[in-house]
Protein backbone atom coordinates (compact mmCIF):
# COMPACT_ATOMS: atom_id res chain seq x y z
CA UNK A 1 0.00 0.00 0.00
CA UNK A 2 1.42 3.37 -0.97
CA UNK A 3 2.19 6.14 1.50
CA UNK A 4 -0.31 8.94 1.84
CA UNK A 5 1.00 11.93 -0.15
CA UNK A 6 2.36 14.58 2.24
CA UNK A 7 0.15 17.44 1.06
CA UNK A 8 -3.13 15.51 0.86
CA UNK A 9 -5.75 15.80 3.62
CA UNK A 10 -6.23 12.61 5.59
CA UNK A 11 -9.96 12.55 4.82
CA UNK A 12 -9.06 11.82 1.18
CA UNK A 13 -7.75 8.36 2.05
CA UNK A 14 -9.41 5.10 3.05
CA UNK A 15 -9.05 3.89 6.61
CA UNK A 16 -6.68 0.99 5.74
CA UNK A 17 -4.24 3.47 4.23
CA UNK A 18 -4.39 5.71 7.33
CA UNK A 19 -3.87 2.66 9.54
CA UNK A 20 -0.82 1.64 7.52
CA UNK A 21 0.56 5.16 7.83
CA UNK A 22 0.18 4.93 11.63
CA UNK A 23 1.97 1.57 11.64
CA UNK A 24 4.76 3.11 9.56
CA UNK A 25 5.11 5.77 12.28
CA UNK A 26 5.64 3.05 14.89
CA UNK A 27 2.11 3.10 16.30
CA UNK A 28 0.49 -0.06 17.64
CA UNK A 29 -3.23 -0.64 17.38
CA UNK A 30 -5.19 -1.64 20.48
CA UNK A 31 -6.50 -5.21 20.18
CA UNK A 32 -9.94 -4.47 21.60
CA UNK A 33 -10.54 -0.81 20.74
CA UNK A 34 -9.47 -0.72 17.11
CA UNK A 35 -9.79 3.07 16.83
CA UNK A 36 -7.10 3.50 19.52
CA UNK A 37 -3.37 3.48 18.85
CA UNK A 38 -0.28 3.85 21.02
CA UNK A 39 3.13 5.25 20.17
CA UNK A 40 6.25 5.42 22.29
CA UNK A 41 9.35 7.50 21.71
CA UNK A 42 12.44 7.79 23.93
CA UNK A 43 11.22 10.98 25.63
CA UNK A 44 7.41 10.64 25.42
CA UNK A 45 4.48 8.31 24.83
CA UNK A 46 1.00 8.96 23.51
CA UNK A 47 -2.37 7.44 22.79
CA UNK A 48 -4.09 8.32 19.52
CA UNK A 49 -7.79 7.95 18.89
CA UNK A 50 -9.32 8.01 15.41
CA UNK A 51 -12.56 9.83 16.10
CA UNK A 52 -15.23 10.72 13.55
CA UNK A 53 -13.90 14.16 12.58
CA UNK A 54 -10.40 14.28 14.04
CA UNK A 55 -7.42 12.47 15.51
CA UNK A 56 -7.19 13.00 19.25
CA UNK A 57 -3.73 12.67 20.79
CA UNK A 58 -3.09 12.31 24.50
CA UNK A 59 0.54 12.65 25.53
CA UNK A 60 0.92 10.62 28.72
CA UNK A 61 2.29 12.55 31.74
CA UNK A 62 3.87 15.16 29.47
CA UNK A 63 2.58 18.32 31.14
CA UNK A 64 3.40 20.13 34.32
CA UNK A 65 3.09 17.98 37.43
CA UNK A 66 2.87 14.87 35.24
CA UNK A 67 -0.51 15.75 33.75
CA UNK A 68 -1.54 14.45 30.35
CA UNK A 69 -1.65 16.84 27.40
CA UNK A 70 -4.46 16.35 24.90
CA UNK A 71 -4.63 17.78 21.39
CA UNK A 72 -6.95 17.22 18.43
CA UNK A 73 -6.22 17.48 14.71
CA UNK A 74 -8.91 17.60 12.03
CA UNK A 75 -8.72 15.13 9.14
CA UNK A 76 -8.77 18.13 6.80
CA UNK A 77 -5.11 18.75 7.67
CA UNK A 78 -2.50 17.24 5.40
CA UNK A 79 -0.65 14.09 6.33
CA UNK A 80 2.56 16.10 6.64
CA UNK A 81 0.99 18.67 8.98
CA UNK A 82 -0.49 15.99 11.24
CA UNK A 83 2.71 13.98 11.19
CA UNK A 84 4.78 17.00 12.23
CA UNK A 85 2.31 18.04 14.91
CA UNK A 86 1.73 14.62 16.45
CA UNK A 87 5.07 12.87 16.12
CA UNK A 88 7.28 15.79 17.13
CA UNK A 89 5.95 15.23 20.65
CA UNK A 90 4.21 17.36 23.23
Total E-strand runs: 5
**How are the strands of the largest sheet arranged?**
1-2-3-4-5
Q: Which percent band covers the strand fraction?
A: 25-35%
Please identify the oligomeric state: single chain
Total helical elements? 2
Helix vs. strand class: alpha+beta
Average residue-wise pLDDT: 92
The backbone outline, from C-alpha atoms, is globular
Order of helices and strands: HEEEEEH
Helix share bin: 10-25%
Distance between the termini: 29 Å
Rg calc: 13 Å
**Major sheet, described briefly?**
5 strands, antiparallel
In terms of topology, how is this protein built?
Blueprint: H1 15-24, E1 28-29, E2 36-41, E3 44-50, E4 54-59, E5 69-74, H2 79-87
Antiparallel strand pairs: 1-2, 2-3, 3-4, 4-5
Descriptive notes:
With 90 residues, this protein is of the alpha+beta class. The protein is built from two helices and five strands. Strands 1-2-3-4-5 form a five-stranded antiparallel sheet, with no helix packed on it. A hairpin with a 2-residue loop joins strand 2 (36-41) and strand 3 (44-50). It is globular and about 40 Å long. It starts with 14 loop residues before the first helix and ends with a helix. The model has no long low-confidence stretch (mean pLDDT 92).
Amino acid sequence: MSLIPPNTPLYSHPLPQIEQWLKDQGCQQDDTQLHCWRVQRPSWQAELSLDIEQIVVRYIQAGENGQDIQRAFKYSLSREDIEQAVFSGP
